[in-house]
Amino acid sequence: MGLDEDEASDLHFKYYTQYGLALRGLTRHHEIDPLDFDRKCDGTLPLEELIQPNPKLRKLFEDLDRTKVRVWALTNAYKHHANRVLTILNLRDQIEGVVFCDYENPNFACKPEPEFYHNAMKQAGISDPLKCLFVDDSKKNVVAAKELGWGRCAHFYEAGLEAMEGGKLKTLGQNGDTAASANGVVAITDLEELRTVWPDIFSK
Questions:
Q1: At CA 17, angle to CA 16 and CA 19, rounded to 5?
Q2: H helices of the chain, where?
Q3: How far apart, in whole angstroms, are the C-alpha atoms of residue 52 and residue 48?
Q4: Residue 166: its pLDDT value, please?
Q5: Is the pLDDT of residue 125 over 90?
Q6: What is the domain-level CATH number for residue 48?
Q7: Which residue has the higher pLDDT, 37 or 150?
Q8: Other CB atoms within 10 A of residue 184 CB
């Protein structure tokens, strides 16, 4: 696209903020092939060096009462990246299905667009949004789900964590940005807190 590093970073952040996924803006405004983008970007990430299995996290999934809940993963990545991450984390067998951005469709939906959540319910065979429980590390995504009537929503917020957000490195908790429980959205800083805020969905 002929952009220098700063220009590319700014454009990434602009589209991430506008659409929830930078690639959504790149495909819409710059005719970027999402499948080619996935192969050259997500497909080349050394994920095995970046993430590792967490026995405590796996135990959290194992302790869910599967007579009360079905577990699906909702991601703004493509299916190959999503399955690769779940496999490395040793969680693939704990997930019933994956709702992903379908890069084969140039007009794919992504969080926080309503169509993405509607597609998720359709794929999971759920007609009543009140039956949906949703956890996400993006406040925008959680608020969008709640506005669509999803029953229980939690914003997972790791204060102090350094993370890339829209192509820019950000330390969560700086500049006064914090998570707060409001409007039916529960704020958690550790996934283990789900045992306390939603105790009815756990068998142990």
A1: 65
A2: 5-19, 22-30, 34-40, 47-50, 55-62, 79-88, 114-124, 139-147, 194-197
A3: 7
A4: 45
A5: yes
A6: 3.40.50.1000
A7: 150
A8: 13
Find the range with the poorest average confidence among 21-25, 89-93, 184-188: 21-25
Structure tokens at 84: 């690769």
Which stretches does DSSP call E strand in 88-161?
A: 97-99, 133-136, 152-156
Return the pLDDT at 175: 44
Q: Which domain holds residue 136?
A: 5-201
Cβ atoms < 10 Å from Cβ of 161: 12
**Cβ proximity of 82 and 47 under 8 Å:** no
Compute the average pLDDT of residues 64-84.
96
* Whole-number percent of the chain with pLDDT over 90: 60
Which 3 state secondary structure label does DSSP give 112? coil
The CA-CA-CA angle for residues 133, 60, 79, to 5°, reads 65
Q: Look at the alpha carbons of 88, 143, 28, 169 in this order and tell me if their dihedral is positive or negative.
A: negative
Report the candidate in 176, 193, 111, 187 with the shortest Cα–Cα distance to residue 144.
111
Assessment of whether the complete model's pTM goes beyond 0.85: no
Ranking 148-157, 165-174, 175-184 by mean pLDDT, the lowest is: 165-174
> What whole-number distance in Å separates Cα of residue 183 and Cα of residue 167?
29
Mapping DSSP onto H, E and C, the string for 167-185 reads CEEEECCHHHCCCCCECCE
- The total domain count for the chain is 1
